[in-house]
TrEMBL record:
Domain Transketolase-like pyrimidine-binding positions: 33-204
Domain of life: Eukaryota
UniProt protein name: Pyruvate dehydrogenase E1 component subunit beta
Subunit structure: Heterotetramer of two PDHA1 and two PDHB subunits. The heterotetramer interacts with DLAT, and is part of the multimeric pyruvate dehydrogenase complex that contains multiple copies of pyruvate dehydrogenase (E1), dihydrolipoamide acetyltransferase (DLAT, E2) and lipoamide dehydrogenase (DLD, E3). These subunits are bound to an inner core composed of about 48 DLAT and 12 PDHX molecules. Interacts with DLAT.
Organism: Albula glossodonta
EC number(s) per entry: 1.2.4.1
Lineage: Eukaryota, Metazoa, Chordata, Craniata, Vertebrata
Keyword Oxidoreductase among record annotations: yes
CDD domains for the chain: TPP_PYR_E1-PDHc-beta_like (cd07036)
Key word Magnesium present: no
Keywords, alphabetical: Carbohydrate metabolism, Glucose metabolism, Oxidoreductase, Pyruvate, Thiamine pyrophosphate
Amino acid sequence: MASLRCFVQAGRSATSAVLRREFHKTSSASLQVTVRDALNQAMDEELERDERVFLLGEEVAQYDGAYKVSRGLWKKYGDKRIIDTPITEMGFAGIAVGAAMAGLRPICEFMTFNFSMQAIDQVINSAAKTYYMSAGLQPVPIVFRGPNGASAGVAAQHSQCFAAWYGHCPGLKVLSPWNSEDAKGLLKSAIRDDNPAHSPLLSSGVFGERAHVWCSV
């Protein structure tokens, strides 16, 4: 049985290697980028591809975001699509939900997902459930994104992980990328999805980590 198990594992490894080689042959190129830059690339590409996409949140415009994930986007796309908000999570989350219901594709950024507790009614009731309550007639294509989980020295208001909480809410898709490639691909897929709400949750400690990202769209 042990030898059979080893054979199966070896077969899987060989198959994975073949698939990776074939994928790399058809891909244009790869770059080693940080998670931060991968998220930035994903938003930049989707903002350029679809004029309905826009970003709003605290300090996402001129300041380039608390973690510099939105670096350069305000200069490229201007005030109408990169929107700084007051410190009122319930307010700008509600604006994002309404915009999604009206046919736009907002990316609603929380400076930390701890602050999403201030907007939890908008997230788990208005955003997550409307698509299903309307029998699919009213999509809510919205992305809630931001850092999540433990970080050094930032106190109780910044250091909890809410992935499990949101994962138990009907209608929400909770995405937890592992590396740069995951971060870029999952964020782009989330922005394009017509289903309700997505929550790409990242530990605030991984933004500087690097991995290869394939450039083909």
